[in-house]
Amino acid sequence: MSVGIRHDDLRRRNRAMVISAVRRAGQPSRTEIAATTGLSHSTISAISSDLIREGILAESKASEPVSLKRGRPQVGLALNPEAAAVLTVVLSLNFLSAAIIDYAGQVVAEEQRRLDTLTMPRDELIRECMAIVRRRLEDPDLDVRSVARIALAIQGITDSPARAMLWSPITPQTDIAFADMLEDEFGIPATVENDCNMMAVALRWRKPDRYRDDFIAILLSHGIGMGLVLKGELFTGTHSSGGEFGHMIHRPGGALCRCGRRGCIEAYAGNYAIWRNARQMSEDSEPVADVSDADMRALAARAREKDGPEREAYCKAGEALGFGLGSLFALIDPAPVAMVGASAAAFDLIEPALRKAIAQTAGGQHSGSISFDTEPNELPLIREGCAMRALSFVDQEIFAPGAQMRPGVRKNVA
Amino acid sequence: MSVGIRHDDLRRRNRAMVISAVRRAGQPSRTEIAATTGLSHSTISAISSDLIREGILAESKASEPVSLKRGRPQVGLALNPEAAAVLTVVLSLNFLSAAIIDYAGQVVAEEQRRLDTLTMPRDELIRECMAIVRRRLEDPDLDVRSVARIALAIQGITDSPARAMLWSPITPQTDIAFADMLEDEFGIPATVENDCNMMAVALRWRKPDRYRDDFIAILLSHGIGMGLVLKGELFTGTHSSGGEFGHMIHRPGGALCRCGRRGCIEAYAGNYAIWRNARQMSEDSEPVADVSDADMRALAARAREKDGPEREAYCKAGEALGFGLGSLFALIDPAPVAMVGASAAAFDLIEPALRKAIAQTAGGQHSGSISFDTEPNELPLIREGCAMRALSFVDQEIFAPGAQMRPGVRKNVA
DNA sequence: TCTAATTTTTTCGAGCCTCGAAAAAATACT
DNA sequence: AGTATTTTTTCGAGGCTCGAAAAAATTAGA
Which residues contact A27 (CB under 8 A, 6 or more apart)? Predict the structure, then answer.
């Protein structure tokens, strides 16, 4: 806000701008970069020749002689995959995975692992996370010069500076400062991210046409999560990762939620809630710990087949989601929505009630025009988001002139 | 996002930074400005001597010999009140007011006017607004060189670029492009702002200790409005002024709201809703057009006196506000709240139920620590917010080097 | 009263950065 | 082969911020 711009900030920012333009556009020419950034050709030329000399960018071999125009052909600039690498870790229910991603965004190595997160003691959970990171970093096959950053995505609530997991449905443990632990152990800057936020980041990269400045990613799973991008920026709470959409109140004093409160959206739309309603159990009954994807698929099949409690359960889920989205839209105006996760495959059962509910809300004035997209597989999305987020940090910080390029130096950057 | 920083942007931004530092701090010395902006003393010296020469800043006469230290005494810098002026217009139910504010933020001239906004035809409403502006601008007593900007605050929904009123409860008219009209008529850049947003802006200036980066201003009046500041910036919707807190859904299918929908928070907490419940009328009954402040005060008095339907009505209002705030806090985390408007004087009747409700929500984990403040008089707050907003625009744009200083040039700036 | 110490503000040269114009480079068209 | 066209680089000019040193303005103490 009230901090001035130094003269040397200028070059740093414009360098970051060029790198980000290349990351976004694929293989833009210098001329294209000049156009998108608004800087002069001379400046782009100077910056890009610096970046090439430093091994951050490379002129792409003219794979395609695209230029049908006459004149000197444009030469595309690409990220040098070997300039750096990042490590992503995704921790979700009974599942841990890690991957090394090169500077151009390609997966170099990957490891997946099942573990019982719900019953695992605190130390062991932490040890497993550290171990998978160490194995990836020490992998002899790894042909990457330096891992410049670690991003760990977790299902649950993280703190606002992305240093710690505060609470998670996948474990009874709370307040684990993963970022500090990783930095202390490996000397690599690390952040802890919310899984739904990373889904949103990934969607932005995958479909920039649809998901640009304002959109919503909703995870339909055992619980309900949300990632929100507003005005081109990831929206987070002031103290936490925020966006606890699943725990907005749908019906005051209503159904019992996994979080112990009553009437949350999740208590109607989470898998356990759909399961509970489909079985015609009381709304006061304790949520089950887990419902398998197969069971949910069977439920959806039955709901499609004939009218009955299963169909009714999906209807209630749609209603809860619809009123919740309507309330959200009252605050932020309508925006495109992506439904992610296994239950997004049953969105056909949810959609009618959802649209009906949303039409009854302030944000639903043009409810017909609100569009939904489904993506049943959340894991690749989360990993992709982590990778892009970590790479963005690298773009902005590591390659600023004057910044030390060696990893191993702890930087407490949010 | 992806727009580079030009070399000449640098000076412009740093000039704006210095001006804003002076506006914020009152009479800071050059040294203080250097400290808060992070720029060097030489730079601050150069910029401030430019600004003084241009008549934007002035060295303040050492009103107080504050310096108990030895050494050369600091010399405070102040805004030159004559550098420019802005015009604020506030349009609310049956009431129109306008004021000229000098560059230092002091009210120079003011006019207030009653009119029947609810029944007034479109043309007349517009004509009244134009007329009050013309009278202020042509006031022969006005000793101000140039009015550089107009800010019009309106109760209701405005569009996101602040050009038009989209909808308002004070008139059946919709979609009035006040900003364009004012600019065409008077040749002065104008914006149309939401009243609650301006309340929030004003609170930020009035009590920067309490209302800094994240807070909520709620207008308790005939309807329910909200202004939201997040991460130090006014939060608006993507297409509209957003923050339609009053129309988040409290009880799906519940009480009839003035907006025609059912179960909105406003349908329980707006004056007409409290009135309706206190009179033990059906929740389906049509909202009354207006309840006088005197009637509401009488209602509150009766509620304080003895248990009964009046007390119950305030209790329902508190519950609706509490669950709504809880849902909001689930998204953005808890933040200080200011209750503004005539009904804020009855907050003692609302608070217990509000706190009880909020404690049952995800955002209410530490509900005891959430603090509320009341301010019964909204009008001065709205005007003050308008003034500060308009002045901020002037700071950033008019006094940038290279920008034309003459008013009368239309600038389509959001 | 006078001098030294201290703090604020200004001055000045150095070093960068971006920009525009012109030159150089690389290709298509004739 | 020569010309037109488009991209990229080169180069000098102008501006900006910075650090160091100087100047200015005051207090503390002898």
Answer: A60, A76, A77, A78
DSSP SS3 for B128: helix
Say what the alpha-carbon torsion angle A45, A46, A50, A55 is, to the nearest 10 degrees.
-10
Structure tokens belonging to residue A163: 């240093």
pTM above 0.85, yes or no: yes
* Cβ contact A361–B261 (<8 Å): yes
Facing A2 at nearest CB: one of B6, B21, B333: B21
Q: Give the CB-side neighbour count of residue B273, counting CA atoms within 13 A.
A: 31
pLDDT digit string (tens) for A98-127?
Answer: 999 999 999 999 999 999 999 999 999 999
A264 at B interface, C-beta within 8 A: yes
For chain A, say whether B319 makes contact (Cβ under 8 Å): yes
- Sequence-ordered list of residues with C-beta below 8 angstroms from that of B41, at least 6 positions apart, any chain: B30, B31, B34
- Residue A259 CA to residue B364 CA, distance in Å, equals 13
Angle ∠(B299,B303,B309) on CA atoms, nearest 5 = 90
- In which residue ranges of chain A is pLDDT below 70? 1-2, 62-67, 143-145, 364, 366, 402-414
User: Residue type for A258, please?
Assistant: R
Query: Chain B: nearest CA to A49, how far in angstroms?
Result: 17
Which amino acid would we find at residue A183? E
Bases of chain D with protein Cβ within 7 A = 4-12, 14-21, 23-28
Q: For residue B192, give both structure tokens.
A: 């149309």
Q: Do A331 and B362 touch (CB under 8 A)?
A: no
User: B360, A253: Cβ pair inside 8 Å?
Assistant: yes
- pLDDT attached to residue A414: 28
Any bridge partners for residue A227, and if so which? A217
- Chosen for mutation from A238, A241, A258, A259 (greatest number of chain B CBs closer than 10 Å) is A238
At position A310, the amino acid (one-letter code) is: E
Mean pLDDT, rounded, of chain B: 91
pLDDT at position A105: 95
